[in-house]
Amino acid sequence: MPKLITTKLYDLAPGFWTVTLFSLISIAFLVSDWIIFYSSFGDFVLALTAFLFLILGQVTLSKKQMIAGSIPLFFLGLNYILNVNFNDYWFDTTRAFLSALKIGLYLSVLLMVYSFVKRKNLYKQFLKTSNVFAVASIIIGIVITLLIYLNRDDIYLVLWTFTRTDTTSYLFNENENIVRMRSLFSEPAHLGYYLNTVFFANVFSGFKKNKWVLAILIFGILFTLSYSMIIILCATGSTYLITRLIKKDIKWQQWYWIVILPFIVGVGFFWDFIQVTIIQRTLDIVTGADGSAYSRIVQSWIYLENERIIFGNGVAHSPPITNIYAYLLTDFGLVGLIPYVLFTLYLLISNVSIFMLFFLMNSAKGGYLNPAFWLFLLYMFVFCIRKKGNQNVG
What would you measure as the largest C-alpha separation in the chain, in angstroms? Predict the structure, then answer.
């Protein structure tokens, strides 16, 4: 695997640079909702990460990796050409070009980090660094939540300078007695998306599980009171446990009580909150009183005209959509959606619990032009989909 740039800078302090690079990835995830100059803070952090990979001489890609990276770029270029020549409705070439550059940055960083981790066998270090930042985000979230209850907006609003500050982003149905934890993100579901990503990276990594980290991450997800993210945690976790039980790959261990007992106590202590935020929310969705689920499942698909079904509206030419599959169809048409659906089906055949995570996460949050989506893919490829001895354990 040839290097694009050869330098000894990394070898002078490999431990320092490794932690720095992995820390930047976590930071990019944490500030992905912060906006400056109409772009995410995470974009600038990832640009810095790519720059460091270059000057450190750590951009080393195999032929397979370069081919894999060229495939989405090919579809992106094809989509651009088709829309320039055949889109008779509206197509902003400047917007499409700048958005394509962002996708190029995201894809480059994904390939750089994936190759770096695989080549140097840094899976454990990457996971450990990710866990530290995930736990830190929960601590920050708890502190912010307490400050909200104490009406100390002079403190927590400083942390939200570059993101949302409206009460609808953290109060449950405008109920001042129920604050949903969102930490540094713009809304609780985005924090849950991040924590689910790190949680299942631990679960599917094949390494010995850190029970305390898993317990903290579970509580972090629950405290977001995000219906979709809690469902993802429960559905994927249950699928993982059931498949392992069927295969007889799991044995009861006493340390499981460390997770189970606090969970039971927490459910009892917060039962009133659970009844309002989970049980009643479920009933509202079933009866149609809550339209958010309908919007995510059905209305996400209404922004594409039949005459553009093949190549879509063009990159970045759709309103915000909370569903990646609907986003791909709307912006890239069947040309973009079909390969992604085929990959999803491949996961279903390979590992049903990883498929469950991938499908639900893509169905619960959109934003393919945001770093969070691409960093989720990075964690999927590094920890969930990679070949390892005990990959097929759930």
Answer: 64
The pairing of strands 171-172 and 35-36 is: unpaired
Structure token pair of residue 91: 């197509």
End-to-end distance of the chain based on CA atoms, in angstroms?
Answer: 33
Containing 159, the helix (H) or strand (E) segment is: helix 153-159
What is the rounded distance in angstroms from the CA atom of residue 125 to the CA atom of residue 19? Answer: 8
What distance in Å separates the CA atoms of residue 124 and residue 382, rounded to the nearest whole number?
A: 11
User: How many Cβ atoms sit within 10 Å of the Cβ of residue 326?
Assistant: 24
> Nearest-5° angle of CA 189, CA 191, CA 193?
70
Closest C-alpha to 53, from 121, 13, 106, 108:
108
CA–CA gap between residue 200 and residue 70 (Å, rounded): 28
Q: State the CB neighbour count (10 A cutoff) for residue 116.
A: 22
Task: State how far the Cα of 337 lies from the Cα of 321, in Å rounded to an integer.
Answer: 15
The CB-side HSE value for 297 (13 A sphere, CA atoms) comes to 9
- Grouping H, G, I as helix, E, B as strand and the rest as coil, residue 176 is strand
d(CA 222, CA 267): 10
In one letter, which amino acid is 156? Answer: Y
Mean pLDDT of the chain: 87
Q: How far apart are CA 1 and CA 7, in angstroms?
A: 15
Give the whole-angstrom CA distance, residue 129 versus residue 81.
41
Residue 393 is classified by DSSP as: -
Helix H or strand E segment including 110: helix 93-120
Q: What is the pLDDT of residues 119-129, one digit of tens each?
A: 999 999 999 99
Taking the C-alpha atoms of residue 392 and residue 394, their distance in angstroms, rounded to an integer, is: 6
Confidence (pTM): 0.91
Residue 365's identity, in one-letter code, is K
Show contacts of 165-173: CB within 8 Å, 24+ apart. Answer: 172/225, 172/276, 172/277
* Mean pLDDT along residues 31-52: 94
Query: Which residues, 6 or more positions from 47, have their beta carbon under 8 angstroms from its beta carbon?
Result: 105
- Is there a contact between 163 and 182 (Cβ–Cβ < 8 Å)? no
From 373, 353, 387, select the one nearest 123 (Cα to Cα): 387
Q: Which residues pair with 40 in a beta bridge?
A: 35
